[in-house]
């Protein structure tokens, strides 16, 4: 792993069961890029971001393990990737503080996540308000070139660019490289069973590692758009595992026959997900693998981020 390759970095919070929106929207691209050897790949369990909502120690540990197992089951080559826990690399929170001092309150008040929480009348924690600043630190610490994510994270990457740019301008340096998002248009927003964006927080997910029964239950609950002959949501999810060309005949022959189409979708999703499920069980049977991967990741991420922090500390004049 040389530093000459462009850096890819992404993160996922250990906040709930992984779903096919996470996989097709983000994880698949992350795993492909990480395995390709074209980038220096960092993947991060964003546990300090998750702490805004997961405030139970056992749940945090379990979700963290599940997330790492999920990545390995999705085919991530553990020998190529630097996979680490955000909490184990202190530079993230340190750099977030430094960024706090150059970031204004009105600017953070424009973030979608904050505005949504406000609109729902929630009392927003400082951690939630500051979320984009910590995420900017996550990304900028490693001179990241590309950040593979789903569409909902686009604004956060713009925040990272803005904050990096402001730091460079304030201190008259080129300390931070400005990252680009990597978002594939056809999977940017995977719909859930109710047609909204699939999300843990909406209860509309198709689980990535659920049993066939759970899969079938979720698919059968997909809301069908009765105005057309082709059920929009069923079709949209179907295109994740079959090309539109392959689906043409099936949807033509079964116009208006939602039950048959859903059964076909269950079959195709199950076929696609079975190898992932099998691999998940294999990974689960070897807990030492997860520990080892996170330990190696911690070491590598600490080394890279400490070197960057030395540069940052010199730039701001604290050393
Ligand atoms: P959730 O909305 O379920 O809480 P996260 O915020 O943990 O999901 O997202 C983890 C990653 O998965 C992010 O990169 C996010 O953009 C992506 N992602 C989540 N849901 C979807 C979706 N429905 N379509 C596309 N990408 C998604
Ligand atoms: N905010 C991201 C999400 O909700 C998780 C995340 C934290 C992340 N730090 C990151 C994603 C850095 C990409 C890069 O999914």
Q: Count structural domains.
A: 2
Total helical elements: 14
Which regions are unreliable across 5 or more consecutive residues at pLDDT < 50? none
Ligand inventory reads: adenosine-5'-diphosphate, tryptophan
Class computed from helices, strands and strand pairing: alpha/beta
CATH architecture of the largest domain: 3-Layer(aba) Sandwich
Taken from the alpha-carbon principal axes, the silhouette is globular
Distance between the termini: 30 Å
CATH topology of the largest domain: Rossmann fold
Multimerization status: single chain
Could you give me the name of the CATH homologous superfamily of the largest domain?
HUPs
Portion in helices: 55-70%
Please list the strands of the largest sheet in the order they lie side by side: 3-2-1-4-5
- Broad CATH class of the largest domain: Alpha Beta
**What order do the SSEs take from the amino end to the carboxyl end, as H and E?**
EHEHHEHHHHHEHEHHHHH
Main beta-sheet strand count, sense and barrel state? 5 strands, parallel
Report the portion of residues in β strands: 5-15%
> Compute the gyration radius: what is it?
21 Å
Number of DSSP-assigned strands: 5
| pLDDT averaged over residues | 96
């Amino acid at each position: 792993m040389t530093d000459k390759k462009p850096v890819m970095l992404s993160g996922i919070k250990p906040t709930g069961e992984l779903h096919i929106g996470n996989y097709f929207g983000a994880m698949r691209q992350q795993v492909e890029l990480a395995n390709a050897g074209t980038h220096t790949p960092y993947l991060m369990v964003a546990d300090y971001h998750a702490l805004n909502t997961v405030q139970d120690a056992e749940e945090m540990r379990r979700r963290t393990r599940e997330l790492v197992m999920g990545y390995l089951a999705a085919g991530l080559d553990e020998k190529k990737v630097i996979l680490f826990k955000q909490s184990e690399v202190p530079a993230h929170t340190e750099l977030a503080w430094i960024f706090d001092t150059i970031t204004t309150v009105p600017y953070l008040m424009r973030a979608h996540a904050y505005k949504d929480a406000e609109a729902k009348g929630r009392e927003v924690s400082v951690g939630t308000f500051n979320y984009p600043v910590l995420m900017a630190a996550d990304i900028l610490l490693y001179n990241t070139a590309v950040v593979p994510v789903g569409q909902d994270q686009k604004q956060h990457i713009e925040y990272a660019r803005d904050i990096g740019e402001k730091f460079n301008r304030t201190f008259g340096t080129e300390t931070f490289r400005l990252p680009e998002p990597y978002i594939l248009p056809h999977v940017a927003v995977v719909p859930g069973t109710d047609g909204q964006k699939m999300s843990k927080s909406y209860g509309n997910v198709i689980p990535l590692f659920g049993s066939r029964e759970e899969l079938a239950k979720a698919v059968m609950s997909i809301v069908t758009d009765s105005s057309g002959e082709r059920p929009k949501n069923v079709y949209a999810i179907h295109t994740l595992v079959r090309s539109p060309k392959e689906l043409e005949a099936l949807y033509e022959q079964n116009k208006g026959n939602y039950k048959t189409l859903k059964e076909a979708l269950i079959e195709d999703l199950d076929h696609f997900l079975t190898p992932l499920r099998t691999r998940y069980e294999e990974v689960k049977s070897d807990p030492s693998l997860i520990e080892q991967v996170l330990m190696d990741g911690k070491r590598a991420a600490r080394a890279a981020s400490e070197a960057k922090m030395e540069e940052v500390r010199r730039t701001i004049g604290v050393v």
